[in-house]
From TrEMBL, chains A, B:
InterPro entries: CheY-like_superfamily (IPR011006), NreC/VraR/RcsB-like_REC (IPR058245), Sig_transdc_resp-reg_C-effctor (IPR016032), Sig_transdc_resp-reg_receiver (IPR001789), Tscrpt_reg_LuxR_C (IPR000792), WalR-like (IPR039420). The lineage of its organism: Bacteria, Pseudomonadati, Bacteroidota, Flavobacteriia, Flavobacteriales. One of its GO terms (biological process) is phosphorelay signal transduction system. Residues 8-124 form the Response regulatory domain. It comes from Tenacibaculum pelagium. The keyword Transcription regulation applies. One of its GO terms (molecular function) is DNA binding. Residues 148-213 form the HTH luxR-type domain. This is Response regulator transcription factor. CDD domains: LuxR_C_like, REC_NarL-like.
Length: 215, 215
DNA sequence: ACTCATGTCACGGAAAACCGTGATTAATAA
DNA sequence: TTATTAATCACGGTTTTCCGTGACATGAGT
């Protein structure tokens, strides 16, 4: 088992215990290299230009320069730097700001090591990683539009069944036959689905179904 | 940073060097526990019932009882056991058999540690994990149907544009207005899209668009 | 020179989706 | 008890999608 790439990491946190803990954890994982650490944003800004890490793991709540301000200052100069925010609490305003600043991931301090590794791997591979709770908040508060409404509606079992079949490219007629009900009934379900989901056609329904993981 | 869960792992490989290597690597990662190892399938079948691992990492090519046979024998008795196949070569027949046997993941021996960890985390969380090359093979050979064709077709720029708008819930009329062409033209594009993608309606197009990351 | 893909447009008909409105039954929640 | 929901069905009308078929111009590649 060869190592293809080593991920160079820089960590910023004003809590020394946390800093030490995460450093030990990540140091014991080959494939990862801790290039350096800092206890505040100012120090981080000095060190990062020379060290050129792949990933910056930063606390959000820090004195003077917090994680968001740090991200803002780094984002333009280092567009390829992946920034993983680690925070002890999750309020939507902070998360919203962090996302706007351009972080690539956001996890909570009470999440396990397994998820930390997953987050690191994910953002290193160019994707964003947000922990489950944060995803929920994003849906609930930032996307305060159609999306939010989409996620609030409750579909009945029958409606889910119909939606599932729609998303599997079945026509109304086919669905009616499959469920042993009339075409009119299926059309009513479809209408109700569109009303609940907030869309005007099948395309919206399919997108919703995929987004919700119903297919 | 607390550890939520520890992942219990059992490893089978007839190459002792590989076995030692992977054991050392994984032992250095907290969150993972190597419960035991075996150099052949028979030995593994003896040890696994007592050790009850979460994840079995097994080589595919082994004498007497190979990884696929091992999977077949374990799958029924231990439905919750996650099995990660590790193989040095990737031919579609083997992969096909492995998937039918019920493995949860398939990676290659030349992949890095980072991906190994990703695979372990992924299958531990109940999802399947297949390395990129394997995914490609799956698409090319096993799903020798619509899916394969879907991934082979080339859409023209204009078609992609139309597909993008379709997936954004625009009607033919709206698309025609937006692109300054006639409705007939948009319908032709849509027809060609459906022909190329291999579907009979908008639902299939949207699913394709999402799958291809066009929206 | 010829073929092929692309992009444009047209026509007609069948099928399906879309929309509004209303109704019945059963079960459940307030 | 009353109100709400889920699930069922109906009807009529409009709009859109779906399908086949054909045509023309352009440009790139063989």
């Amino acid at each position: 088992m060869e190592v293809n790439k080593e991920i160079k990491i820089f960590i910023v946190d004003d809590h020394k215990m946390f800093l030490d803990g995460i450093t030990v954890i990540l140091n014991n994982i080959s494939g990862l290299i801790i290039l350096g650490v800092a206890e505040n944003g100012k120090e981080a800004l000095k060190l990062i230009p020379n060290l050129k890490p792949d990933i910056l793991i930063t606390d959000i709540d820090m004195p003077i320069i917090d994680g968001i301000e740090l991200t803002n200052q780094l984002r333009l100069s280092y567009p390829n730097l992946k920034i993983l925010a680690v925070s002890s609490h999750n309020n939507s305003t902070t998360i919203s700001k962090a996302i706007k600043a351009g972080i690539n991931g956001y996890i909570l301090k009470n999440t396990g090591k397994v998820e930390l590794l997953k987050a690191i791997n994910t953002i290193f591979n160019g994707e964003n990683y947000f922990t489950k709770e944060v995803k929920q908040l994003i849906n609930d508060s930032i996307f305060n539009n159609k999306e939010a409404k989409k996620n609030k509606v409750k579909l009945s079992d029958r409606e889910k069944e119909v939606l599932y079949l729609i998303a599997h490219e079945k026509s109304t007629k086919e669905i009616a036959e499959k469920l042993y009900v009339s075409i009119n009934t299926v059309e009513t379900h479809r209408k109700n689905l569109m009303r609940k989901v907030g869309t005007k056609n099948m395309v919206g329904l399919v997108k919703y179904a995929i987004q919700q993981g119903l297919i």
